[in-house]
Structures are given as structure tokens and as C-alpha cells.
Amino acid sequence: MNFRYSPKIKVKRMMITTNSAAAIHYTLRNGAGEILDSSEGKQPLHYLHGHGNLIPGMEAGLLGKRVGETFKIVVSPQEGYGLRDEGLVTIVPHSAFGGHTPAIGERFQAGHGDERYVIEVREITDEGITVDGNHPLAGVELHFDVEVVSIREATEEEISHGHIHGPGGHHH
Ligand code: ZN
């Protein structure tokens, strides 16, 4: 009998699919090449694929990728943090800040109850303070450089919770 063990055939590298618990390193730049965010020098980003934990364009770009692969993902605002809504830019009276004058670029939590959002101070005049409730990355085309670090199957519990547990995930 001519039998030869061939490890190449037996090893099947996992690919990212729904219910994969994956870890990635990434660097995010805008269209002008400025770095907006990066996992470099930090823990990789751990996430559960297919549960809306990442922006849609990122999940689409990661689907089917394998450990060790490096690639670019370009995400349109629609598949990222949405388009800017100028209706979320408003002028509030100085009294809204209780006599405290904020700095331009300063961010505050606004809203009431469970409906919380972040507003950023844009402009300050005698008439009032212009605040912007858009996500800072709304309207921005996102350029990601990505490396897949690890992939494993998520546990039943993680899938039912919609997020991963353990290192890089939820601890509860
Ligand atoms: Zn959980």
C-alpha cells in the first residue's frame, strides 16, 4: 500500500465568517492619508463577526479573510458612520452650559435617559454656542489597513450574547 501522510491537505486555515471570533490589527486613515486611529502598539481588536459589532463596510471587507492576510478596506460613509446630517448642527444659548464657556472642539454627552449622544463644540459667538451632534467620522471615507491576527469559532454563549468574552472581549 502506498500511503503517505500529507499535512498540507489536512491543515485547513479558518476563514472569517458569521460567528467567527476574530482579532485584527488595523490603521485607519482618511482620504488625505492622515491617521485617525490605529491598534498599533496596542491589543488587537477582538470582535464577533456578523453581529453588527463593526461598521457594515468593515464586516463586508473582512468576510472570508484568513489569519496572516494583510489588505486594505475602503469604506464609504454610507457603509461606515453615515453621512453628515446638518440638522444635528444647532446653536444653543450660553445658558445651556450653565455659565461655563466650553472650548472649541470640546465634546460633551447630551440627551436624556437612554438616549445619549456626543456633541462637539464648533463655534462660539455672542449669540450662542454652535454644537455638532454628528459622529466625528460621519461623512468620512475610511481607509483601513488590516491584518488578521487570529480566528476561532465563537462559543454558544458568545453567539447568544452577540459579543465575545475573554481577552479583548467582555468580562462579565
Ligand atoms: Zn456576554
Quick summary of this structure?
The chain is mostly beta strands and 172 residues long.
Describe the model:
- The chain has 172 residues and is mainly beta.
- It has 3 helices and 9 strands; from the N terminus they run αβββαββββββα.
- It is 10% helix and 35% strand.
- The strands form 2 sheets. Strands 1, 2, 3, 4 and 9 form a 5-stranded antiparallel sheet that branches.
- It is elongated and about 90 Å long.
- The mean pLDDT is 91.
- The structure holds zinc ion (ZN).
**Ranges with pLDDT <50 over ≥5 residues?**
none
Shape: elongated
Radius of gyration: 22 Å
Could you tell me the strand content as a percent range?
25-35%
Q: What level of helicity do the residues show?
A: under 10%
- Mean pLDDT across all amino acids: 91
N-to-C terminal Cα separation, in Å? 55 Å
Bound molecules: zinc ion
Question: Structural class, from helix and strand content?
Answer: mainly beta
Count of β-strands = 9
Count, helices: 3
Compressed to H and E, one letter per element, the order equals HEEEHEEEEEEH
Profile the largest sheet.
Answer: 5 strands, antiparallel
How is the secondary structure organized here?
Elements: H1 7-10, E1 20-29, E2 35-38, E3 45-48, H2 56-62, E4 70-75, E5 89-92, E6 107-112, E7 115-124, E8 129-132, E9 142-153, H3 156-161
Antiparallel strand pairs: 1-2, 1-3, 1-9, 4-9, 5-8, 6-7, 7-8
Zinc ion binds next to loops.
Give a quick set of tags describing it.
5-stranded antiparallel beta sheet, 4-stranded antiparallel beta sheet, binds zinc ion, 9 strands, 172 residues, mainly beta
